[in-house]
Amino acid sequence: MDLMKYVEGEYAIENKFPNFKSGDTITVHYKIKEGNKERIQQFKGVVIQRRGSGNTETFTVRKMSGTFGTERIFPISSPNIDKIEMNKQGKVRRSRIFYLRGLQGKSARIKEKRF
Fold this sequence. Notes:
five-stranded antiparallel β-sheet; 1 helix; globular
């Protein structure tokens, strides 16, 4: 048996998050430590990509703050993620939508999947 897979399985943190993919708009609630205090901050944006598998899986969220785009990479098995909320399901044809980086305004919108 592979030793790394054994250790990953032994120390895995099981989180119950909704199924989301690239193009979806989500809100990530994550914990921030400031000194000895802890608070929860929200990061709302569009999922650009999911990469990896198992405990090493990560996802990238891009949000627009005025005219500035901010991206953040979250590990899916991080103990600092409190919860993930699904806001909208996007209708995209790619799994990695890096072309959003070059778009602004109305052209950067993603169609919503009706269900």
